Amino acid sequence: MMTYEEYLDEVTTLMTERFDLSDDEAIKHVMRAQAADFFTLHDDIPDMRTQERAEQDAKTIYDMRNKSRGHAPVKLVKTGGKPRKA
Predict the structure, then answer these.
(1) Is the separation of the CB atoms in 7 and 54 below 8 Å?
(2) pLDDT in tens, 7-43
(3) CB of 55 within 8 A of CB of 14?
(4) Alpha carbon distance 86, 78 (integer Å)
(5) pTM for this model (two decimals)
(6) By the 8 A CB rule, do 41 and 48 touch?
(7) Residue 84 pairs with which residues in a beta bridge?
(8) Closest CA to 26 of 4, 52, 57
(9) Is the dihedral of CA 61, 67, 68, 70 positive or negative?
(10) Which of 12, 17, 58, 72 is the most exposed place for a label (fewest CB within 10 A)?
(11) CB of 27 closer than 8 Å to CB of 9
């Protein structure tokens, strides 16, 4: 069984290996998930810190990574006729 810190390291490593993220990107996403209490139960329940669960969590965090970001509004410019995207 992994310690909590080992578990977070494993999730981060899996994200770099499976989703072609840099170490910095993977660390950023895992830290954001941790700040959002994604790993709270993992800290309290050691049985959750398995390799299989780390693989599931890496995918979940990867899938969630852009959902919390707002999208930039589309900027329209007038071209004498219909507006178009800038």
Answers:
(1) yes
(2) 999 999 999 999 989 999 999 999 999 999 999 999 9
(3) yes
(4) 9
(5) 0.76
(6) yes
(7) 77
(8) 57
(9) positive
(10) 72
(11) no
